[in-house]
Amino acid sequence: MTPSPAWGRALRALTLLAIDPERLRGLTLRARAGPVRQAFEMALARLPGPARRIHPDLTDTQLFGGADIAATLTAGRLIQSAGLAQSPSRLILTMAERTLPSLAARLAQLLDQSGAHALVLLDEGIDGEEAAPATLTERLALHVTLDDIRHDAAPALMPAPADLREARDRLAGVTHSPEDIARLTALAASFGIDSLRAPLLALWAARALAALADRGTVTQDDLREAAELVYPSRATQLPQEPEDERPDETPDPEDQSSAETPDIPDEVLLEAVAALLPPALLDSLASRSGQRRAAGSGA
Predict the structure, then answer these.
(1) pLDDT at position 284, please?
(2) Based on the domain organization, do 51 and 94 belong to the same domain?
């Protein structure tokens, strides 16, 4: 059976995380337990580098280290234990939707202070109110959902380890233009994404895509695919239709350079992200629109 497009995006996100975990910082997987999620976790386990599974009951001592009480009592002297923070790794947080604010703050602190760790959130939440903390998801570039994917449409096909290593080696040589970040910033604003991290994370994702394809420069296709992986889960609104206004006069030649930076994102990028907006967001927007119409009619 032909692999599901959603599954293809999920594996693409894993691939990018393998290429640039230091800048992309991690991934949120929102999926209930089942064979498709199991296939995804099998692919996750094959990523290069050490990985440690953690749970929402993780203590500060386990994370950052500290006095080992049991060992101290046995030895009769203070014994310090090393925490997970002292060993660079990919931390995989199970049942992320149950994470308390205190642990979320500690993990956010770890991500902000060290580029040696990446974080994968396994979110099994049923609805929008039961979800991984925004404190963490906002810091992680990639977001994957596995809804409505059949098991036979989810082959665990990933690039070979050698291809991932070569892409990592090429990453530092990939370039982008100022217009690329301007497009991504305008696109984020169109969808109500006010985080300053989001455009930068999308840019890093685009650079990783270019490195994977052995391109020295970020292309329009790289920007589109990066936006598809980073923006839909962060969107809070649908793009507004631009007003059709004609300028009163022709811009001066000196102003042409500034006109090259887009205030309105490319239509291709808008359509790509809009096509992947979460159903819960679309339902919420439709509900709000209906309430406004009812209020306006005096119903």
Answers:
(1) 77
(2) yes
